[in-house]
């Protein structure tokens, strides 16, 4: 790889991290606007036009609030917990393909931070590390409510990662690769939506999506921070920007989960009639091959972010619509329903592949 290409990829990595932070920041604004709409009330409208500067006001508040360390807390781990949660959330976005390739003469730039042939395994590994940030923060707080929230978070993540991994196996059986870029490109046949994995794996998608809610600690799976029982859960004792890191990491995880579901099941950066549009640009508009491909790549990136934002809206819609599970209901759903369904989905997928129904 040339130095020029390395420089371009470095810019892509910085752009991915910057976009992750920006989207997470404005997810807090979207959460309030959507909640206000669903509850028929006025949302944020003071900081800037239509309240668009509210996230910046929140950031200033977080940075200027008093730092607080509870008595008996392990200060080093108390600081390390939210930092680990934030770093792992950002790292998981590095392997997501946000677009196809851009061609500038002899230089080819992929709109992806890094490409590794075990990209999905990388995401699972980093997401699994994220729960340590919650566990460490809850334990280091020297607070029984924080520790209970941390234990809930750990057991919940372990329980639902099993079903999520089993749902993913069915996709891997069809694709034969762990590379997120390859999985996306395999869904680009003729650019049509009926080649997307959601058509072949509807049950797997439902299982994966349900587990994504649990992995991000979102309602109705927000037991680790249940205010009615645990005050605030694992971040009860946190204030200032350390609390902000926990809250921001949750929204980054929502963004990453939405991106992964879009890539695995909804074609990623593919969109209907993309190849017909490319040929029309070349044949009827006199656009060069590389330029036409760059235009399609740009439109594909826009399509992917449209899918991501639709999933983010779905996350927020569910939060303000459904009540919270009891803890025994949460565990029963994970162990007694989702895992058996995921195993059945693997067997069904294997049978359909064997008899040539799906490929």
Automatic annotation (TrEMBL):
PROSITE patterns: COMPLEX1_ND1_1 (PS00667), COMPLEX1_ND1_2 (PS00668). It is an enzyme of class 7 (translocase). The keyword Glycoprotein does not apply. PANTHER family: NADH DEHYDROGENASE SUBUNIT 1 (PTHR11432), NADH-UBIQUINONE OXIDOREDUCTASE CHAIN 1 (PTHR11432:SF3). The keyword Translocase applies. It is a multi-pass membrane protein. InterPro entries: NADH_UbQ_OxRdtase_su1/FPO (IPR001694), NADH_UbQ_OxRdtase_su1_CS (IPR018086). Pfam families: NADHdh. NDH-1 is composed of 14 different subunits. Subunits NuoA, H, J, K, L, M, N constitute the membrane sector of the complex. NDH-1 shuttles electrons from NADH, via FMN and iron-sulfur (Fe-S) centers, to quinones in the respiratory chain. The immediate electron acceptor for the enzyme in this species is believed to be ubiquinone. Couples the redox reaction to proton translocation (for every two electrons transferred, four hydrogen ions are translocated across the cytoplasmic membrane), and thus conserves the redox energy in a proton gradient. This subunit may bind ubiquinone. The chain crosses the membrane at residues 6-29, 77-99, 119-141, 162-180, 251-273, 294-317, 337-358. Its main location: membrane. It is found in: Cell membrane; Membrane. Keywords: Cell membrane, Membrane, NAD, Oxidoreductase, Quinone, Translocase, Transmembrane, Transmembrane helix, Ubiquinone. Belongs to the complex I subunit 1 family. This is NADH-quinone oxidoreductase subunit H. Its EC number is 7.1.1.-. The gene is nuoH. It catalyses: a quinone + NADH + 5 H(+)(in) = a quinol + NAD(+) + 4 H(+)(out). GO terms for molecular function: NADH dehydrogenase (quinone) (non-electrogenic) activity.
